Each structure stands twice: as structure tokens, then as C-alpha cells.
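Supplementary Methods, section 5.1.

A reviewer requested that the exact input to the structure prediction be made available. We therefore reproduce it here, unchanged from the version used in the analyses.
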Amino acid sequence: MRKYLLALALTSLAFSTVAYADNGRGTPEEQKACTRDVEKHCRAVIDQGDFTILACLKENRGKISVACDQVLKSHGQ
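The structure derived from this sequence is encoded cell-by-cell as follows.
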């Protein structure tokens, strides 16, 4: 169930960022890049919506993986 919620949250995150991939969704690779960071740093807010997860990742920017940081940067976050 948690993996489902995480996938849903990451998909929501992809929809919330401007200029995410051509189809409006983050690519599977982009979602995978941030999965562990969301699980590790933002688990408590997974059910609070995509903007909350994005804010959490940004608040923990110094702790997130280089790959996830690059995903955020590539989408102006």
C-alpha cells in the first residue's frame, strides 16, 4: 500500500511542476530518481499532496540525492 501511495505521490508531483516532460508527467527515470528521497525525508507528508511533497524535497535539498536534485533543477524548482 505504501508503494502505491508513493507512486501516486510522485505522479502527483510530476503533474504539479511546470514543464515536466513532453506529456506533462515526469518520466519513470525522473520519478525513480526521487523515490528514495521521498521515502526517507518526506514519508510523513506523502498523504498531504504534491505541493507538500515538493516543498519537503526542497526543504531537504541538502540531504537529497544528486539525481533527485537534478530533476528538481531541470524543472525550475
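Residues 2-17+28-74 form one domain. These observations are discussed further in the main text.
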